[in-house]
Amino acid sequence: MGKNKSGSNEKKGNSSKTAVEQSESKSSHDLALTQGKGSLKPATAVNVRHILCEKHSRAMEALEKIQGGQRFDKVAQEYSEDKAKTGGSLGWMTRGSMVGPFQDAAFALQPSTVDKPTLSPLVKTNFGYHIIMVEGRR
Predict the structure, then answer these.
(1) What value, to the nearest 5°, has the Cα angle with vertex 84 and ends 102 and 61?
(2) pLDDT tens digit at each of 138 positions of the chain
(3) What one-character-per-residue DSSP string does 76-118 give?
(4) How far apart are CA 31 and CA 100, in angstroms?
(5) Model's pTM, two decimal places?
(6) Fewer CB atoms < 10 Å away: N or C end of the chain?
(7) Phi and psi at residue 24, in whole multiples of 5°?
(8) From CA 105, how far away is CA 113, in angstroms rounded?
């Protein structure tokens, strides 16, 4: 009986250690995310482009084309279902002029170019699914 008790204590100790390791791993992941966002200078406006699709499947198709090397503006002309047909450009947008999830994604992105865009993951709003890229910050 004594050995079983000792054995179960070891198991508890191991699972507890795993929980601590998981906690440390999560903390370092959170820190990396914080540091990544911290590297962006605070901005009050972003020059933003997007592709808006009502259906998730169409948005995923557009995202795959861009990830496959096609230019953001060309894919936007083909897939975007809003009035920003000019390559998806919305121009300079200020904080507070965009819906919450869209704004959060836009201000979290590093500026990039249409031929090598840094993209947001799909962002769901009441308008549909957005793929977002930022060309400038100020």
Answers:
(1) 70
(2) 555 444 444 444 444 443 333 333 333 333 333 334 446 778 999 999 999 999 999 999 999 999 999 999 999 999 999 876 689 999 999 999 999 999 999 999 999 999 999 999 999 999 999 999 999 999
(3) HHHH--SS-TTTTEEEEEETTSS-HHHHHHHHHSPB-BTTB--
(4) 23
(5) 0.70
(6) N
(7) -65, -40
(8) 17
